[in-house]
Amino acid sequence: MKKWIERALNIHSGDLGRGTLLCACLFLVISSYVIGKVAGAALFLSRFQAKQLAYADISSSVIVALVVAGYVLVARRVALRDLLIGSTIFFASNCGIFWVLARYHPHLAWLFPLFYIWVKVFGVLAPTQIWTLANYVLTTREAKRVFGMVGGGAISGWIFAGYFSKAIAKTFGTESLLLGMGLFLLICTGLIVFIWRSGQVAVGGAHGMTEGSAESGPRNLFASVQLVFSSSYLRAIAAVICISSLVTTLTGWQFLALMQQFLVKKDAIAAFYGNFNFYAGILSLLFQLVFTTRFLRRFGIGTALFVLPVTVLLGSTGLAVFGTLGAAVALKGCDQVLRYSLDKSTTELLYLPLSARIKLQVKWFIDTVIWRLGDGLAGLTVLIFATTLHLAARQISWIALLLVTGWLVAVVVARRQYVATLKESISQHRVDAEQAATSVLDRSTSDLLAARLSASDPQEILYALSLFEVERQRAAHPAIRSLLSHPSAQVRQKAITILSESGDKTVRPDIEPLLRDADLNVRTEALLYLTHHAHVDPLELMQDEGDFADFSVSSAVVAFLARPGETQILEAAQQILTAMVGEPTPGRQRHRVQAARLLGELPDCFDPLLSNLLADPDPVIAREAIHSAGKLRKRRLVPDLLDRLVHQELRVEAAKALGEFGDTIVGALRDHLGDSSVSIEARREIPTIMVKIGTPAAAHVLMENLMESDTTLRFRIISALNKLRRLHPEIETDAQMLETVLAAEILGHYRSYQILDKLGSTKSGEDPIARALTESMQQELERISRLLGLLYPHLDIHSAYLGLQSKNVSVHDNALEFLDNVLKPQLREMLVPLLERARLAQRLVHTKIENQEQAVEALVTCDDPWLRSCGAYAIGTFGMRSLEGELNRCLNDADPLLRETARAAKLRLEALATKA
Based on CB atoms within 10 Å of each CB, which residue in 8, 98, 108, 192 is the most buried? Predict the structure, then answer.
């Protein structure tokens, strides 16, 4: 039964409990208010003339402003829970006092006007309290689902109060209605207490409802006014409320005037008005329960805000043209049906992105003072145009049309500000992982250099220097120069190397004395530095100074002979370099390392030697050769660099060097990226190189490969496109291709939900299959968010994605609401339910997964090697011999992890067969 009700109301499991409680609270409050209106009007008219109601209405407007001012002061000092409960009990006790006075002291002249005004104040404050409670209990997404149900309680209360008032007044007298009001308010107080004690409100949680939450709010009504007018979003909400109240009150006056004009007699007017309210209430209730939630979830707040003003616009046009009672009934009927159903729920949703502090203070002001301000402006409009200028009720429609235009403008601004406020809300919780990682690395390096370069342990200094060397900065850190006189020979040698790499010529006077250093390695590095940067003959230096290693002598002589000028002898340099490269034996490592480093500084005539070194099995030698190839940017070395992408130790350096070539090698990279015979590890490095190149041609190659079957490579391609768009916003992308890939990713995510559901994963997360699938689904979701970022570069989609990952329910729902308001309708209909829950998986994915075996089969036959490994593991774990053929195919797969997992699963199957 519960599931049927949830399905009928289009709400989620768990929404029904909170929705019912809030619906009951609003039902009781509105019932009390309508009963009070009936009793107040009847008691007032029993003593005074109807025309004197105008004075009471004017007085109530002033008193409402004063009461709200006092209410704000109380709200600042009292916790929300105590405020709601205390004020409801206060209103209930007032009803009892008024009943006693009306029953035993009816002669008091001031009693009935006072009660009439009290009802007006109660009608402003009490319903607003319940809507505020609903704003705190529900998140943005929950509110979209449940507000329709809650609003239905208000309409039901309106209908119920009419029957209750008629029956009680006829049987027990009008005064008895006051006791009914008090009883309903006491029941409402109990429900509020139950909502709090049942844990429906997370005190101090997402909405920050702590005991002292009001302490940070404005101090008085004037502060609330300042707060509203200081925010463009709050001004937009206030404008929507004020203008809608003005227009609705004005059209309500037209309805009453035309009803009096056509029906004349008092009894006929009363009967017609009663029937109108009854049927309009029923239609409003049906619309609220059946259509409001579905409309909000399908079209969002932006569209819903336009429904009532557009309807009033059409209705006012019809009334201006025809001027009949039927036209007035149609206008007022549509207004009343929509105002207390869709429009009320939509207006309440506007407050949800606001923080608890702001919401608590401004909502009372807008929903009371601003609302009553609209009523007062409507009265002023009638006074000017109907009383003074003698315009007929029909002609007032032209004034209404002008006001509706302003209403539509306010709605446009409110919708735009609503999305901006949601964006700001989720952006506050954004952590840009890449940017954070970069700043942490830079900060860590600087801190480490500052702290470690003065350390007593040489190993700590060497470690700090190695970090600096990895970054290959153009300018050396000033602290490194002081290390040239460090007691440790290793530290002195490393300092010279880094200074030479950075091209720092200012330290030459400090380097020259090191030619006589006691350590051979230090002398060697000093000789190489001076040969490269001081342009001196190394033979003269060696003649004057001590002994040097043969590789340093050779390197220095080559640098001297290859340098342009009168001393240049390239043939001799070639012979010495060839001897240095020699055979790749362990004893020749230093010679080959020095040759590889030197080739990056020499003229463009030693390519064969560099190719030889690029293929060296020693990663130290190959790394130096790669670095030199990147500096030289010779296209004939590109194939050699591409080959090094396969090696884990060298792929980062190779990718960095290839990026130095720029647009000239995009064609070669495209062929490499699309060649399935190339190692997948090498292909996965291509997107990073494309980002380094950063040209439209590079982006085009990435777009061509967006449908790559390997999920890791596809993710890197998408990430590379994100970085390219961020670094080069002028580069255009194919929107149609992006939408196609996005649709495929979304369908794949639905399929993952199907598989996870049928696997019956444990909630503890200990099931390795389910855990792996869940991680894969997280990667799918990130790919989806990055594709959205490419489709909507002007929106902060990454913040929304991080908001969706948040454990804070309010942040998560605000992020979802943001996407719900900015995506295209077709994409929103497909994606938002997926992010909210996977209910549509069976409908969108044509092939159903009906059992565990089909779920495992879907895993083992997919494109992702990791998920196929999970499927192979499941075959062995669950003993699924029917899928042994798929397992055999996994044994011959190119992915090593998949083959290993399949072999283990095969052994498991054989063991289970032996036991059987």
Answer: 98
Long-range CB contacts for residues 832-839, cutoff 8 Å, separation at least 24? 834/746, 834/749, 834/750, 834/753, 835/781, 835/804, 836/141, 837/12, 838/750, 838/753, 838/754, 838/757
222 or 407: which carries more pLDDT confidence?
Answer: 407
Which SS3 state, helix, strand or coil, does residue 49 take? coil
CA distances (Å), origin 720, targets 48, 83, 414, 633, 732: 78, 54, 36, 23, 14
Are 582 and 592 contacting, i.e. CB atoms less than 8 angstroms apart? yes
Per-residue DSSP letter, 13: T
The reported pLDDT for the residue numbered 382 is 76
Q: Are 147 and 135 in contact (CB under 8 A)?
A: no
- Residue position matching structure tokens 């003269």: 540
State how far the alpha carbon of 323 is from the alpha carbons of 256, 398, 653, in Å.
Answer: 13, 12, 82
Dihedral of CA atoms 383, 389, 391, 393 in degrees, nearest 10, equals 10
Give the whole-angstrom CA distance, residue 53 versus residue 60. Answer: 10
pLDDT band at 839 (very low <50, low <70, confident <90, very high): very low
Q: Which of 718, 740, 720, 739 is nearest to 728 (CA)?
A: 720
3-state secondary structure of 520: helix
The pTM of the whole model exceeds 0.70: no
Supply φ then ψ for residue 586, to 5 degrees: -55, -35
* DSSP 8-state assignment for residue 288: I
Helical spans, DSSP H, in 566-665:
570-581, 589-599, 607-614, 619-632, 638-644, 651-659
Name the one residue in this structure whose structure tokens are 């790559």. 708
- Given a contact cutoff of 8 angstroms between Cβ atoms, the answer to whether 695 and 668 are in contact is no
Model confidence over 378-390: pLDDT tens digits?
777 877 887 778 7
Half-sphere exposure of 47 (CA within 13 A, CB side): 17
Residue 480's closest CA among 462, 471, 470? Answer: 462
Q: Find the angle CA(888)-CA(889)-CA(895) to the nearest 5 degrees.
A: 115
Could you tell me the two tokens for 315? 């209705």
